[in-house]
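Handout, page 2. Input:
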Amino acid sequence: MKNETHTPGPWRVDPDDDFRVVDAQDCTISRTDFINLVEEHDWQIANARLIAAAPELLTACRLAGEKLSSVTQPGESGWDAVSACRDAINKAEGSSP
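Output:
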């Protein structure tokens, strides 16, 4: 598995601030409330949850892509899942636009 260049997980949404994503040491990874600091929006909270899940999602994509690519070949049923995993990994690692 590739060495991580991002802040190691796990990340979580701060229980006292639904817009703040923090690492294990409570350091801020991200905030999702910069667009509108006055109103709370469900989509901003949902974005924070998605960001908090990013390290686990990256690991899951790597594992799923490895397993699926060992049992399917290009053009076969299931290869689209391998491609989707690889695309997501490349995006997360900055290897694609």
